[in-house]
Design goal:
It is a single chain. The chain has 510 residues and is mainly β. Helix content is 0%, strand content 43%. The strands form 12 sheets. It has a 6-stranded antiparallel beta sheet with strand order 1-4-20-19-18-17, with no helix packed on it. The chain is globular and about 55 Å long.
């Protein structure tokens, strides 16, 4: 197999194809040919002139063009990746009867607890950030019954993958040891070929990297070790991979985008893209890529928001959002145009600054609006705790379709955070709620039969909240766990969420 390496700087950007600065016209966004979704143009904007990037093509036989741009997650039961799909918007909302105001814990699952001392502390068990469970669902179990057969799959800080019966909380399969901390959210292939994509988050036991678990064999069948060609040395994978067409896209904290051709039980590396801002070191990527057709979007710890072409990995536009951005951005299609919502932390700004919550035109990178939320950084037991946004925003649905919701770590006063509703059209804050503690966990949606939206949120002190979306009225505040850094999933009227420590919970909402 031949390898082709392309190094791009300012003088080569005009070779990206298409007319610079010209996006697809609005009418083309709904065009299809014989039911096939048309790709967006291979173009670039002047904002990418700040980038130096290298594309390495390892498979020169395969063109790299995605043959099918349909959302592979949309029609498959279950929740198979972080935030449920390519928009990262948690599209499979919960359902409640009436106005929810109480909860009950249906079961608690205990994970292992790792007491190994590392340079980064003792990680223990349960889940950390982003730590979202997955739900695998089939309509018929092995007995032939037609009721859904539901299985929770979750990675743990203890370095284990757990498989849990959704109904009983009992183990549904043997645990798989992956030997290192899992902080991020694994991803299950939406073609249901049995591939579970897992990234390690902290190196305790070498080798350190990412892997494929073949659930048909219930074993690790493919491992990606540390990349010697990466422009950044930290080899963790907190980003949740996404499948588009015949390819899987995996982003690394080593600052590399990996594009794989998918095979059952394994992956074949097609191409990579490494980048940095001129005059700066290569950044790391912890966010999970959002996808619109053949465009991918991510944030990095240098404050960059980047759009790239999935077909050839070339950057399309870049937006500078001031500071470290680890949270996964969310996409919303509004009047046929995709928009990207995200915010940053207060890290490189110093002890105080702003979380810049932005709405961008996802085709061009043009800023639609910006809302600055004052935050600060604090000392937490000898470690600095950043302010800003760590959770992924939640687009409103039902009677809140013009809202977008988010949790912001203000540290004002220390260790405190807020839950906010923002008008998607004007960027104005509709309301803000003080939480018991700051929140890294991403909120999830539910609707009643009348289309009223309610939201479940959790914070880093173990409290959970039920909030009426339209008014901001807090209908329930209750302490359940130790520390909810990980994000929940919503299934009917139930929540599955992991806590720091050693607990995974299933909670019913009433």
């Amino acid at each position: 197999m031949k390898t082709l390496t392309l190094l791009f700087a300012l003088t080569l950007l005009s070779a990206c194809g298409g007319e610079r600065g010209k996006a697809a016209d609005n009418t083309s966004l709904n065009d299809t040919i014989h039911g096939a979704i048309l790709p967006l143009p291979d173009t670039s904007f002047s904002s990418v002139e700040a980038l130096i990037y290298e594309i390495q093509i390892l498979d020169t036989i395969n063109s790299g063009v995605i043959t099918d741009l349909r959302d592979l997650y949309d029609s498959v039961p279950g929740i198979l990746t972080f935030r449920g799909g390519p928009f990262r918007d948690f599209p499979k909302h919960g359902k409640v009867t009436g106005r929810p105001d109480s909860i009950s814990v249906d079961w608690t699952f205990k994970t292992a607890f790792d007491t190994t001392k590392t340079p980064y502390g003792i990680w223990g068990g349960g889940t950390g950030w982003t730590g979202q469970p997955l739900l695998m669902e089939s309509q018929n179990d092995i007995t032939g019954n037609s009721a859904p057969n539901r299985e929770v799959i979750i990675g743990s800080l203890a370095g284990e993958i757990y498989f849990i019966d959704y109904y009983t909380g009992e183990p549904s399969r043997n645990t798989i040891d992956v030997f290192n901390v899992i902080k991020g959210t694994p991803s299950l292939d939406p073609t249901l070929n049995g591939n579970l994509y897992v990234g390690q988050g902290v190196e305790i036991n070498p080798p350190f990297g990412a892997m494929v678990i073949d659930l048909n064999k219930h074993a690790i069948t493919h491992f990606v070790p540390k990349d010697p060609g990466a422009w950044r040395g930290w080899g963790a994978y907190d980003s949740s991979p996404i499948r588009v067409g015949q390819f899987l896209f995996r982003l690394g904290e080593n600052g590399t985008i990996y594009k794989y051709l998918v095979q059952q039980g394994t992956l074949s590396l097609h191409s990579t893209m490494r980048y940095r801002i001129k005059g700066k070191k290569a950044p790391g990527i912890e966010s999970s890529p959002a996808i619109y057709r053949n465009y991918g979007y991510f944030t990095d710890n240098g404050g960059n928001v980047i759009c790239f072409n999935l077909d050839n990995l070339k950057p399309i536009w870049r937006y500078d959002n001031h500071d470290d951005s680890d949270a996964t951005p969310v996409l919303c299609e509004e009047m046929g145009i995709p928009y990207l919502y995200t915010s940053c932390e207060v890290d490189k700004q110093g002890s105080g600054g702003y979380s810049y919550f932005i709405k961008l035109n996802a085709l061009t990178g043009e800023k639609v609006w910006e809302n600055k939320i004052a935050c600060q950084k604090i000392d937490s037991g000898g470690k600095l705790s950043d302010g800003g946004m760590f959770s992924t925003p939640l687009p409103g649905i039902g009677d809140c379709s013009d809202y977008i919701f988010t949790c912001i770590v203000t540290h004002n006063p220390p260790f405190k955070g807020i839950f906010m509703a923002i008008d998607k059209n004007r960027g104005k804050i509709i309301y803000s709620i003080d939480l018991k503690r700051y929140a890294w966990s991403s909120p999830v949606p539910m609707l009643d039969s009348e289309g009223k939206m309610y939201i479940f949120a959790a914070d880093c002190w173990g409290y959970v909240y039920i909030i009426e979306g339209a008014t901001g009225e807090v209908l329930l505040t209750e302490k359940v766990g130790l520390n909810f850094e990980g994000s929940p999933i919503m299934v009917d009227n139930t929540i599955v969420i992991g806590s720091r420590g050693d607990n995974i919970y299933k909670i019913s909402i009433h």
